Each structure stands twice: as C-alpha cells, then as structure tokens.
Amino acid sequence: MKKTLLEIKDLKVNVEEKEIIKGLNLQIHEGEIHIIMGPNGSGKSTLAYTLMGHPKYEISDGEIIFEDELINDLRADERAKKGIFLSFQYPEEIPGVTVEEFLRTAKTSVTGKYQGIMAFKKLLKEKMEELEMDEEYATRYLNQGFSGGEKKKNEILQMSILDPKLAILDETDSGLDVDAIRIVAEGVKRVHDKDKSILVITHYNKLLDYLNPDYVHILLDGKIVKTGGMELAEEIDKRGYEHIRAKYSVH
Amino acid sequence: MKIIDSEIYSLPKDIDYKKEYLKFEAALPEGVILEKINKDKNEIALDYLIAKEFEEAKDQLTPLVEESYNTGVVFYLPKDVKVDQPIKIEFNMDDDNPVVINQNIIVADTASEATIIIDYTSSEGVEAFHQGITKIFAKDKAKINVIKIQRMDNKAKSSDTNIGFIKGQGQINWISVELGSAITVSHYSNYLEGEASGSNLSSIYLGDGNRKIDLEYSMIHKGPRSISNIETKGVLMDEAEKIFKGNLDFKKGARRSKGVEEEYVILLDPTVKADSIPALLCHEDDVEGEHAASAGQINESKLFYLMSRGLDERKAKKLIVEASFRPIIDKIPFEDYRQIVIDEVERRFMDDKN
Ligand SMILES: Nc1ncnc2c1ncn2[C@@H]1O[C@H](COP(=O)(O)OP(=O)(O)O)[C@@H](O)[C@H]1O
Ligand SMILES: [Mg+2]
Predict the structure, then answer these.
(1) B308/A77 touch (CB, cutoff 8 Å), yes or no
(2) How far are the Cα atoms of A221, B50, B61, B68, B193 from residue B55, in angstroms, in the given order?
(3) B291 is in which domain, residue-wise?
(4) How many Å lie between the centroid of ligand 1 and the Cα of residue A41?
(5) Are B322 and A92 within 8 A, CB to CB?
(6) Is A156 exposed, middle or buried (0-12, 13-18, 19+ CB in 10 A)?
(7) Which pLDDT score is estimated for B11?
(8) Spatial contact of B241 and B211, defined as CB atoms under 8 Å apart
(9) ipTM associated with this complex
(10) Is the CB of A56 under 6 A from ligand 1?
C-alpha cells in the first residue's frame, strides 16, 4: 500500500470570523491525483490557502497532517520547504523582480542549496521549453503585464522548477485556451510521473481528460459531500451544480 | 515633525582629513581642471569662472561649510569637453580621520559632460561626521550626472546640501542613495534658470534602527519650458523616522514648465514615523506640477505569494523592497556601484531583527 502523504481530519477554517470550511476530511496517498469540484464560493480556494498556510485563514479545529507531521502551525515558507506547492488562482505581480531571479531565490530557499547561476539557467531553459514558453519570459518581471494565461503557465513553470511532493492547482485551467490546457496538463503529468501527488481544483473536464484522476470530490458549503471517480465530474458537467446540491447536500 | 536637533550644525574646528579621496587616474582632456579644493589657489579662479552668470543661492549651511571645509574638489569642464570616465570620490572616515567637511564645486561650460560619483563610508563604531556642500553650475547644453552614495555607520552623522544652477538647455541629474548614519540630512535645490533647463533627482533611502532622515528636494523653475523630475523610493523599519519635503516652485517666467514629484515609502514596522510634505508653488499660470505619494505596508497577498515559494518573511520583504529600489539602482551607470548599493541594502536587512 502507498504511503499517506496528506491527511486532513475534521478541518474547520474561519476567514474573518466566518466559518468557511466546516469539517472537511481528505486523504491523499503518494502518487495520487485528486480533483475537487464545487460551485463558486464553496470554499475551494479557502482550502487551498489553508493547506499552504495563509495567515488570514484560521484553523479553528481539526488537523492537517503531511508526511506524518502535524503542520497546522507551520508558516507558508516552512510548508514550501516540506514540499507543498500552490498554483494560485490569482498569481501576484511582483514588479522589479525577474522570473529568473525569483525562481532561483525560491529554489535556493526550498532546497536549502545554493543554485549556481549557469546550472539554474540551464534548468530554467529546459523547463520553459517543456512548457512552450518563450525564453524572454525569464527576464521579465514576475507576472507583471502577463496575460491571465501567461500567469497560469508561469505557475506551472514554478511548480516544475520547485518539484514539490504535493502540488495544489487552484483553477489553473480557468481562462486557458485548449492548447494551453494541454501544455499545463503535460506539465502536471511530468510532476505526477515522478510519483508526486496532485490536488486539482477545477470546474472543467478538459484537464481531467488528460490527467486521469484517481478521485473526484465534490465540495459544497465547506464540506466534501461526495467522493467518486470521473463519473462524478461527468455528472456535474451534464447536470450542473444545482442538481448536485439537491442530490448530495447534507443538512 | 522636527527630527534634526541643533547640535549637528556646530562644526568641529580644525580637523584634517588626511586620506586620499580623489580616485581618478586617467588623463583628462585639455583644459579640464580637477583638483582638490584649496582656499588660496583654485577658489579665486572659480569665482571668476562662475562670476555673475549665476544668481547667488543662499543656504543657511553654506557659509559654515565654506569657512571650515577640510576636503572637496574643484572640477571645471571647458566648452564642448566630455569626460567619459566617471570622477570617483571616496570618503572613508575612521578613528584618525573622523570628520569630512567637504565643498565640491563643479562648473560645466557649454555642452560639456561628465559623471561624478561620491561615496561616503565610515568605520564601524566611529562617531564620524560628514557635512558637505556640492554646487554645480551647468551652462547651456551641459550635462552633469552626480551619484551620491551615503552608507556610513550607525554611529555617524551626515548632512549634505546640494545646489544646482542650470542655464539654457543644461541638465543636472542626481542620484542620491541614503543608506546609513544615525542622522541623515540630505537637501537638494535645483535652479532651472534657462529655457528648457532640466533636472532629474532619483533617490532611495533606507531607515533602520533609530535612524532619522531629513530629505528636502526643491526644483525651482525660472526658465520657460524647464522640466524637472523627482522620484524617491524609501523603506523604513524598526524605529526609523523620516521627513520628506518636496518643493516644486514655478517662478514668474517659468511658462510651460513641468515638474513631477513622486515619493513612495514602504513601512515595515508600525513603530516607524514617516512624514511627507509636498509643496507646489505657482507664480505662473501655464505650468504643470504633478505630485504623487504613497506610504504603506507590504501587501499581505504579495508577501504570502512569495512565502509560499519558500522565502521566509524577511527574505520576502527584502525582495519586495529591493524590487522597489530597482528602477533607481538601475540608473547608476556602473555595475560595481550598483552592486555596492544592493549589497548594503542586503546587509541592512540581514543585520536587523526585522
Ligand atoms: N480573504 C477573504 N476575506 C473574506 N472572505 C473570504 C476570503 N476568502 C474567502 N472568503 C469567503 O469564503 C467563501 C469561500 O470562498 P472561496 O474559498 O474563495 O471559494 P471558491 O474558491 O470555492 O470559489 C466565500 O463566501 C468568500 O466570500
Ligand atoms: Mg476559488
């Protein structure tokens, strides 16, 4: 049996005094791909931010266990060093810092090992080619003036470079054209092929067709109300969240 | 907020600075004068060169420095002469040479061009004292670039006054980097006297510990279609205090002139104090004065984004501050000095508990 990488037990999360995640359980083993689907406002990003350690998202109850260690109180940078990565739904723009400098700093921080300039350039170039990104992006300021799609690709580039054990993708496929979705999917698969785990938050089946997930979870009002396989994603696609809500909602 | 007490104005008397500070070995084009200042020798010649063409600008600190300076350079550029290599001046105050009172006079004749870098440092723990005045006279089409880097020790005090007089289409470009000393006074006044005279002042400052920073930048537009630009980026942490006065003064005759003033400061701790006093004076209707300022903490979402990539809080903040300094640092036309500034910012960050 595969090792458990992440275990979430009865998690409750408050944002500005309001409970958003209301008792959530989830277990991810090494090498698994999990999908979370749910209507807008159901708490998907809140879960993603909480797993990454955003200080604004307060865990009021429950446990997040990563590689047998309780990480509830770890800061975001500590979690990154443990191998958790979040591809942001809305990546931040950081003018004045180039993609290359930033990623080299990030890689140094995450691995704790100095990254030689030339060796890193080579790694970056290779990863950018895989993602069909123009070399010129390396010298641009991080996300500044990037289109929505370019920002998302840049998140996947960061993921490829940082090589996490658990990658959480928060609507990385939203706003991407079909070609970009394919490229992103291939990027995710390359990480997955190394027996890494993936948690994908998405609304669309396009990405899922490429990824062939192990589990699909439905998140409603801060709880996972149903877990299944691809057939769940197809049901949502066909019948919409209202139908799902009526069918699975627990009160 | 008044942060500078009167003690700084009482200058020490008769203290020599014995170290070499003028670091320039290359051969100069004919007619160029580059000498250490000397009361008996070059000052008289300069008086003649400057004579009457430039209006007198009075500054309260000027007479004091003019009487008791122990260092400084006199730099004269004849018509059409361009000096390609930078004139480097480095003051390194230490136990034996704790005081620098310098007067620098630069006269740039028509269409001449040069770049001057002045770097102020002091040894750790020495109560060094720097007071200076730099006067630049730029005639029509002359272009003078001055880069001042002050990175003295926390025990030091530094007070620096700069005055530029610009004729015709002359231009003075200043870059001011204020990273050190316990008390920092840094004043710049530029008189744009001619038609289409220009001046740019770009500065960065870093306040940590208990540093007190007093910045006053003035652009006095007298000539028509004169153009000025002030761009300042700062960061304050710990208990640092800063006051910034930015003055755009459009005198009678400055028709169709334009002045832009921008000041941004990042406040890293709630214990810092930051005052900003912009002033816009118009004695002429057809002028354009723009002012923009912002003071704020680092955006929480940006900080989280960086930290999610493994950077600890201090590193993430440092990155954002360096990024805000970047456009100004990039204006320093020499890689070695850009690196010096970047390293000093880095050191200041790593030193403090922030
Ligand atoms: N930073 C925040 N401040 C205030 N409310 C928030 C914040 N983040 C999320 N919420 C609220 O939490 C709920 C869930 O939001 P979110 O997790 O973004 O949903 P999803 O990603 O599923 O669309 C929403 O009602 C939203 O308004
Ligand atoms: Mg969301």
Answers:
(1) yes
(2) 74, 10, 17, 23, 9
(3) 32-298
(4) 6
(5) no
(6) buried
(7) 56
(8) yes
(9) 0.96
(10) yes
Does any domain span residue B339?
no
User: Which ligand approaches the C-alpha of residue A57 most closely?
Assistant: 1
Determine the distance separating the centroid of ligand 2 and the alpha carbon of A232, expressed in angstroms: 20
- pLDDT for residue B352 is more than 80: no
Question: Distance (Å, rounded) from C-alpha B163 to C-alpha B57?
Answer: 8
Strand order, beta sheet including A18-29: A18-29, A4-15, A57-66, A69-70
Find chain A residues with C-beta within 8 A of B324's C-beta: 96
Alpha helices in chain A (DSSP H): 44-52, 76-82, 99-111, 117-130, 148-162, 178-193, 206-211, 230-248
| Residue spans of alpha helices (H) in chain B | 42-50, 62-68, 300-307, 313-329, 335-351
B75 falls within a domain: yes
Answer yes or no: is pLDDT of B4 > 50: no
- Count how many domains chain B has: 1
Give residue B179's pLDDT band: very low, low, confident or very high (50, 70, 90): very high
Mutate to test the pocket of ligand 1, among A20, A51, A236, A241 (most ligand atoms within 8 A of CB): A20
Q: Is pLDDT of A214 > 70?
A: yes
| Orientation angle between helical segments A148-162 and A178-193, nearest 10 degrees | 10
Please report, rounded to a whole number, the percentage of residues in chain A having pLDDT higher than 90: 86
B104 part of a folded domain:
yes
Query: Is B310 in contact with A95 (Cβ distance < 8 A)?
Result: no
How far B188 CA lies from chain A's nearest CA (Å)?
Answer: 27
Cβ(A222) – ligand 1 distance below 6 Å: no
Nearest to A77 among B299, B311, B326 (CB): B311
Q: What are the tens digits of pLDDT across the range A180-208?
A: 999 999 999 999 887 899 999 998 888 99
Q: Is A203 in the pocket of ligand 1 (CB under 6 A)?
A: no
| Inter-chain CB proximity B310 and A110 less than 8 Å | yes
Domains of chain A plus CATH, in order, are 33-57+75-248 (3.40.50.300)
> A80 and B313: CB-CB below 8 Å?
no
Question: Whose C-alpha lies nearest to ligand 1, atom 6?
Answer: A15
CA distance A238 to chain B (A): 35
**pLDDT for A247:** 84
Cβ-contact B264, B294 below 8 angstroms: yes
Of chain B, the end-to-end C-alpha distance in Å amounts to 25
pLDDT confidence bin for A63, thresholds 50/70/90? very high
Pocket of ligand 1 contains residue A53 by CB under 6 Å? no
Would you call B241 helix, strand, or coil by DSSP? strand
Instruction: Find chain B residues with C-beta within 8 A of A105's C-beta.
Output: 311, 315, 319
User: Can you give the pLDDT at residue B60?
Assistant: 42
Q: Is residue B13 part of a domain?
A: no
Please give the interface size between A and B, counted as residue pairs whose CB atoms are below 8 Å apart: 74
Q: Which of A77, A34, A61 is nearest to A166 (CA)?
A: A34
Three-state secondary-structure class, residue A56: coil
Q: What is the pLDDT of residue B2?
A: 43
pLDDT digits (tens, 9 = 90+) for B124-157: 999 999 999 899 999 999 999 999 999 999 999 9
**Which pLDDT score is estimated for A195?**
83
